[in-house]
Amino acid sequence: MYLSRFLSLHALWVTVSSVMQHYPSVWGHYDVCKTQIYTEEGKVWDYMACQPEARDMIKYVKVTLDPPDITCGDPPETFCAMGNPYMCNNECDASTQELAHPPELMFDLEGRHPSTFWQSTTWKDYPKPLHVNITLSWNKTIELTDNIVITFESARPDQMILEKSLDYGRTWQPYQYYATDCLDAFHMDPKSVKDLSQHTVLEIICTEEYSTGYMTNSKIIHFEIKDRFAFFAGPRLHNMASLYGQLDTTKKLRDFFTITDLRLRLLRPATGEIYVDEQHLARYFYAISDIRVYGRCKCNLHATSCKEENKKLFCECEHNTTGPDCGKCKKNYQGQPWSPGSYLPIPKGTANICIPSISSIGKNVCDNELLHCQNGGTCINNVRCQCPPAYTGILCEKLKCERDPGGCNQNSAQRAISHGPLLLLTALLGVTGLFIF
Fold first, then answer.
1. Is Metal-binding there in the keyword field (predicted)?
2. Which residue did the predictor score with more confidence, 140 or 390?
């Protein structure tokens, strides 16, 4: 019987071990901001760096198109079929649900048949450029954790720029250029992420990898986040400790993966050839069926939760911090300058909590975390200290006899000293008694 149990447990362990081999080594998930531990002084809080879970950020996005009337269907127009550029009897009509292609169809659930997608007007004004800006805004700082993936329903553009903003759309920087001919379009030599290294990972490149013509199986464009992570964490991202160490100490690297907004600048639709066929301009347009952006709210390692309220994301800050990104100390907790948390040392990091201001320690303030009631006092509902008979003050820090006309004599002081540890010992015994049974 014992042998069979042992073999069952061994089999379970082998199964668990084989599964765990596919996950990174223990480097810390930073999913807890604090935990209670027991020390010689009793139960205290142990603080650590923390961050929200990564999630699909598209569900929180606001999309803006420029020009605003660039979506097809108003007025209705015909366009050529995706697979057959000379079958030009398809219709886009904004007034008919089945024929409309509004921007929100870039973000709905995929898997339907036929697929849903946003579509621009056709290139009917050629040779005037068909330029479209698609801006994705979160009104919140986001840290990217996975590849940005854009799925086109039409062929992928001949020319496109992916841009990012870190200041809510006031200024923009290029993330990556895409073209069928990088030298001709942007005066840049073509590269791929595989041509980069740890030292050049921040280089802005132009790639021809995602800009082919009318190929039905070539509709996806990537901005490769994970390939860039892999320069520090290894090909399978097993050494995340190394990546977190780099993010912690290199602000430019950290900012590279941080955004408030993204912008797709569609500059030239897929032509599939050198010359534009002016007799069939209804062949040329943009159509996008899906955009995926995965990341987490930036909370400066001071929160594990990010919630939406009134269509705005905000961090549920801990460590006595506040602000949309937990970017400052709460009132009365400015005893030292605010600092972000740190991933180091692995695996718990450093919380860098905000501490109370000296001037803020006033009447009815205690929290059993940073503001302890002294001399055996008890914090009541976090608003006042219940002091032993011989003590008084905000935190029970003063002897009552100090207020007497004659001051404290040796006997009164001795009684206070003897009572304080006794009350503290009683409290500690009460706590440890919980674990006797």
1. no
2. 140
